[in-house]
């Protein structure tokens, strides 16, 4: 089963009673994604605020919330765990993967990512709505799967040979040649980590590469698809694009929720620059 859904398939399903569409747009530059949603969104969609639906007690950005907090937030959006949940974003395939991972980790039965997101939806000429969205509250029975989440010590163990650590940041940030966007976070990467910028999993239209081409992107980055993997990035967002790609290939992985914001922000973690 694919975790992606095409815009054509979604368009055919509009109006189905168990379909819930979620705009999960989030921008690293701080642009107001909710304002974008109010300007144009897929009919019937609700807006998921990634920063708000997070562990507000953590100093790290948008860390996974508790199951109770997640259930309350998405239930208020009218989403239940047994709905067909389709996640998209305005970039194409960026933050939607993170929210897909969150829903799956919290027990959603059938959650997909819209392949190519709003840009491809627009390019096909499908309808859009404006304004806020109203939702009938639902009960979301959150059952967290902790095996999907990697912590700091899991990554330390992985770097000793327990698993591959795959970093979705740009080559410049990985090599320490480009500054990190968050103050106080060192530049570079975890010694022994592999670099696979998330964009290398996507075609020019923002859709995920198919089959063999997707697998080859991992292989070209030095990833052994038969070995366990932990994905990471700057703050746990684009790491989920790698997690989604691995899932499309039938390969499980864990996502390091703290990612480089945690690792690079500490002084007791080793950092390598190339």
Describe the structure.
The chain has 274 residues and is an alpha/beta fold. The protein contains ten helices and ten strands. The strands form two sheets. Strands 1-5-4-2-3 form a five-stranded parallel sheet. Helix 4 (96-105) crosses helix 9. The longest helix has 11 residues, at 152-162. The protein is globular and about 50 Å long. The mean pLDDT is 96.
Q: Note poorly predicted spans.
A: none
The main sheet comes to: 5 strands, parallel
Spatial separation of the terminal alpha carbons: 39 Å
In sequence order, what are the helices and strands, one letter per element?
Answer: EHEHEHEHEHEHEHEHEHEH
Mean pLDDT: 96
Quick rundown:
The protein is of the alpha/beta class and 274 residues long. It has helices at 7-13, 33-39, 67-76, 96-105, 117-123, 152-162, 171-175, 211-220, 239-248, 259-263; strands at residues 4-5, 19-23, 46-47, 84-88, 110-114, 149-150, 164-167, 194-195, 229-232, 254-256.
């Amino acid at each position: 089963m694919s975790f992606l859904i095409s815009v054509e398939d979604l368009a055919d399903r509009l109006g189905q009673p168990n379909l819930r569409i979620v705009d999960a747009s989030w921008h690293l530059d701080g642009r107001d994604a909710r304002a974008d949603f109010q300007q144009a969104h897929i009919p019937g969609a609700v807006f998921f605020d990634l920063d708000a639906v997070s562990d507000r007690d953590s100093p790290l950005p948008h860390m996974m919330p508790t199951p109770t907090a997640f259930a309350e937030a998405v239930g208020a959006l009218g989403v239940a765990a047994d709905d067909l949940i389709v996640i998209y974003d305005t970039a194409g395939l960026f933050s939607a993967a993170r929210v897909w991972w969150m829903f799956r980790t919290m027990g959603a039965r059938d959650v997909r990512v819209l392949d190519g997101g709003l840009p491809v939806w627009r390019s096909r000429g499908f309808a859009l709505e404006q304004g806020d969205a109203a939702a009938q509250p639902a009960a979301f029975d959150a059952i967290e799967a902790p095996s999907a989440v990697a912590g700091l010590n899991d990554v330390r163990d992985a770097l000793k040979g327990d698993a591959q650590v795959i970093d979705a940041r740009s080559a410049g940030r990985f090599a320490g040649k480009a500054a990190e966007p968050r103050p106080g976070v060192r530049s570079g990467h975890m010694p022994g980590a592999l670099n696979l910028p998330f964009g290398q999993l996507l075609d020019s239209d923002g859709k995920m590469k198919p089959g063999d081409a997707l697998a080859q992107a991992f292989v070209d980055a030095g990833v052994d698809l038969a070995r366990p993997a932990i994905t990471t990035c700057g703050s746990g967002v684009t790491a989920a694009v790698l997690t989604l790609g691995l899932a499309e290939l039938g390969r499980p992985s864990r996502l390091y929720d703290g990612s480089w914001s945690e690792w690079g922000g500490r002084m007791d973690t080793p950092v390598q620059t190339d």
